[in-house]
Design a protein that fits this description.
Structural class: alpha+beta
Largest sheet: 5 strands, mixed
Order of helices and strands: EHHHEEEHEHHHHH
Strand content: 5-15%
Radius of gyration: 21 Å
Length: 206
């Protein structure tokens, strides 16, 4: 039985080692900071299975699992144990944050284990996809593609007297107030409630 545990600051070294050794994607969930920040919102927990990082999220009363595996053999072992765990608690196995290669591995796992393929579905959810930019592109903003972003930069520089400062503890409250102002502008509400975004920011800053 897989033993999941909450993501704590003390887990950072081991989780980052597993991500470094196994991750084949550039998505934000393959970073310790992101996993730690959203731990409260999604009741995120983790386990190490056959040298593979398995992250469990709580979504609408059921669990979803992210498998960060370097190779197909490790992926199969992790999925087999997740499947057993999910069955033991009477829930379907729901895998999240899968790459196209993961989906191919999963399809082969289904066939190898003799499962009914109609019991499973693979969905490409665009709402959950990350925007991945080239560091070089964003640092230079060259070309017509980035003209709108250059316009934003130029407008900002013309309107504001700004400076860059190292983020320190005395800035934390100001950061939360800024997020609150953004939230009020976005929602049109007068009050600023403790959103999941604020919770994630507060957790990282603290």
């Amino acid at each position: 039985m897989i033993q999941f545990q909450p993501i704590l600051k003390s887990d950072r070294t081991r989780i980052e080692e597993l991500l470094l050794n196994n991750s084949r994607s550039l998505i934000c969930d393959h970073t310790f900071t992101n996993l730690y920040a959203w731990q409260v919102t999604y009741q995120t927990s983790w386990a190490e299975v056959a040298g593979t990082l398995v992250v469990r999220y709580e979504l609408e009363g059921e669990y979803g699992y992210m498998v960060v595996a370097k190779g197909e053999e490790n992926f199969r072992e992790a999925v087999t144990q997740i499947d057993s765990f999910a069955r033991s608690i009477g829930q379907p196995m729901r895998l999240l944050e899968m790459s196209y290669e993961d989906a191919e591995w999963f399809g082969r796992w289904v066939k190898m284990t003799g499962r009914d393929e109609t019991d499973y579905a693979t969905c490409d959810n665009r709402d959950h996809q990350d925007y991945i930019y080239s560091l070089e592109d964003l640092s230079s903003l060259r070309g017509r593609k980035y003209q709108p972003k250059r316009n934003h930069v130029n407008k900002f520089e013309s309107l504001y007297d700004y400076s860059f400062e190292e983020l320190r503890e005395e800035h934390f409250e100001e950061c939360l107030k800024l997020e609150c102002r953004w939230q009020r502008r976005k929602s049109g509400e007068a009050d600023c409630s403790e959103t999941s975004e604020q919770s994630a920011i507060r957790r990282v800053l603290e």
